[in-house]
TrEMBL record:
DNA-binding region: 46-65
InterPro entries: Homeodomain-like_sf (IPR009057), HTH-type_TetR-like_transc_reg (IPR050109), HTH_TetR (IPR001647), Sco4008_C (IPR041467), Tet_transcr_reg_TetR-rel_C_sf (IPR036271)
Residues spanning the signal sequence: none
Gene source species: Nonomuraea zeae
Protein name: TetR/AcrR family transcriptional regulator
Family annotation (SUPFAM superfamilies): Homeodomain-like (SSF46689), Tetracyclin repressor-like, C-terminal domain (SSF48498)
């Protein structure tokens, strides 16, 4: 259980009761929800389990987030904010960017599962409300790649960012396929990461003439 720590004491019905801050309640719910959604996805997650793990009444979930779906969106946002805070823009060194991104996904399998559940839950839909910040963040990354290559931002640099992200993410998304293809070598994350980085270096070094 994530649980909550009292921040003080307050009178309730004539007796002293521990008081927990609103921020602490929200943080506990997000942490509990991240575990629940990573394990069960949006459809399979249960608000009562999230509330129990966080140590609060489940009505707090609706009070803070409005719905289970909005809570999931907030969990995704927070997880990606954490990722962004630890990653430099890719333009200066896209090879190093891919290697570090692969390391991050490898050490944060819950984020990988959240992204997969998001793709399954919202497949075929248009851009969701509230995702403008993610669009802008990706646009900055693509612009960084373009600047590093001495180009103007274009659909080509956006596709490059998409492919770099996919190369870093795929091994963490498909561990069972890795074990089928690589056998015991599937456990050697460093070797796989380094080969992905070398593949990116070779691809970007040759820079084939791709239409924008």
């Amino acid at each position: 259980m994530v649980g909550l720590q009292p921040t003080g004491w307050s009178w309730h019905d004539g007796s002293m009761a521990p008081k927990v801050s609103t921020a602490a309640t929200k943080a506990a719910l997000l942490e509990a929800a991240r575990e629940e959604f990573a394990a069960y996805g949006v459809a399979g997650a249960r608000v009562d389990r999230i509330a129990e793990r966080a140590g609060v009444n489940k009505e707090r979930i609706y009070g803070h987030f409005g719905s289970k779906e909005k809570l999931f969106d907030e969990v995704i946002k927070e997880a990606l904010d954490d990722l962004t805070a630890q990653m430099a823009l890719p333009g200066a060194d896209p090879v190093d960017y891919v290697a570090k991104l692969a390391d991050y996904y490898h050490t944060h399998p819950d984020l990988v599962r959240l992204l997969m559940w998001e793709a399954l839950n919202y497949r075929g839909q248009d851009l969701l409300a509230g995702q403008e910040a993610r669009v802008e963040r990706c646009a900055r990354k693509a612009a960084s790649l373009a600047e590093g290559a001495g180009e103007e931002p274009s659909a080509k640099t956006a596709r490059t960012l998409f492919m770099l992200t996919g190369l870093a993410l795929f091994p963490a998304m498909m561990p069972q396929l890795g074990r089928i293809i690589l056998g015991e070598d599937a456990d050697d994350h460093a070797a796989l990461r380094d080969q992905v980085a070398a593949f990116v270096a070779a691809g970007l070094g040759s820079r084939p003439d791709v239409p924008a």
